[in-house]
Amino acid sequence: MSNNLPKVAWIGLGIMGSPMSENLIKAGYDVTGHTLEQAKIDRLVAAGGTGAASVAEAVRDADVVITMVPASPQVEAIAYGPDGILENARPGALLIDMSSITPQTSVDLAKNAKDKGIRVLDAPVSGGEAGAVEAVLSIMAGGEQTDFDEAQPILRALGRTIVLCGPHGSGQTVKAANQLIVAVNIQACAEAVVFLEKSGVDLAAALDVLGGGLAGSTVLARKKDNFLKRDFAPGFRIDLHHKDMGIVTDAARNVGAALPVGAVVAQLVASLRAQGDGGLDHSALLRSVERLSGRPVQA
């Protein structure tokens, strides 16, 4: 594919990365991808992208490098070292890290990349798998305005609400707040579901009317079917939300902000994970409420 659009390297082709990279291909970008599983590289190639056998190979000719991996250790693993992004990307390249990691990791990455002449944006997302597939993600960025402006066309192919929130690390801080709100919201919905069912109310009808009032939320709209059908196939895994609750709890401690309800929900997420539900969607917080309420939990 020859065009004037920047050449993109994409590292991390998971639940979010695969559909996001495919949306860039649909938008006309030349995308070279690398991830740990060959089947996911094959999927990218089938969608019109190019596979790479290593991070170094993927980023070598890229104008823009996008990373979408689970957590800070993975970002550090692909960014640093002789085979990493910073040693192998071209000076002047723009690195957009869309993973959800600690704000400090983003700050450190930007500083280390600057020494190599590589510009960095932290640009974590909200919207889950559905938002990734539909290209309607909310993208919260941290970094320089000029780099953000340059990244806009790419980000617009991936999401709908795209905001620069401040300097490096700011996108991650806003993402942490997002995960706090989502977790508490899911927990409240889960408690309401069990309360409604134990009261003998028609759950589908109840959730419809609740969704139309002040209790309505994107969480309720997106997760209603998960609750009704007890379908917890992962759009966003409990394991990852557990990681994110650790990030927000730690970051809040560092700035002296109290999160009393957030701390309780963080423990409920940790409990669900300890009970073997870490691979389920975060709407599976419902299972925790069912256990606490003495209800049978489906295997």
Describe the fold and architecture.
The protein is α/β, with parallel strands linked by helices. The chain contains 14 helices and 9 strands. It has a 6-stranded parallel sheet with strand order 3-2-1-4-5-6, with helices on both faces. A 3-stranded mixed sheet has the order 7-8-9. Helix 10 runs antiparallel to helix 11 (218-229) and helix 12 packs antiparallel against helix 13 (260-277). The protein is globular, with a radius of gyration of 20 Å. 47% of the residues are buried.
Record the SSE blueprint.
Elements: E1 8-11, H1 17-26, E2 31-34, H2 38-46, E3 50-51, H3 55-59, E4 64-67, H4 72-79, H5 85-88, E5 94-97, H6 103-114, E6 119-122, E7 125-126, H7 128-134, E8 137-141, H8 145-156, E9 159-164, H9 170-198, H10 203-211, H11 218-229, H12 238-255, H13 260-277, H14 285-292
Parallel strand pairs: 1-2, 1-4, 2-3, 4-5, 5-6, 8-9
Antiparallel strand pairs: 7-8
